[in-house]
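Listing S7. Sequence submitted for prediction.
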Amino acid sequence: MRTCALLIAAISVLVAGCGGAPRYAVPAGAPTAEIRLVDESSMDVAMATYDQHEGCTSRKWLFSYYVDGKEVEGETPYKTIRAGALTSFTIFHAVYGRFCDAHFKFTPMEGRYYTAVAVDSEGKCGVALMVSETSDGEATPVEEVQFPETKRRPWGETGSWCGSVP
């Protein structure tokens, strides 16, 4: 069933004009942090970030079937992200043709390890963001994480919650 839901989600993304699955790459010379995705939801999940925080443009996949050919189940390995700049993220939830997006933004600190925990309850999806000093250290909630007040359309590429659209 997860594969069927992912196939439906993939077709939706392609029809929406995504035209592929670009992967995220840290800009050369940028300070870095690490992030992973933990799926504690009852849905299939994927996680993306954006090359341009303002307007959430140029989406790049961090974790999903589209990126590495396997479903996100449980805990993913850490991936390197840019630190020191406000960054927007979306966790896409999908199950049986139902979609829900959890959007958030924060400024990753250099050398820190972040865990985005995908959760859902009563048909609503969300994310809890945790941080630790080491990859196996005790994690605490990220205080400065911001969640949007305005929602975007499902699977949308841009939206006012990220900031001004250029």
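Caption to Listing S7: primary sequence and predicted structure tokens for the chain studied. Confidence is low (pLDDT under 50) at residues 4-19. Residues 2-148 form one domain.
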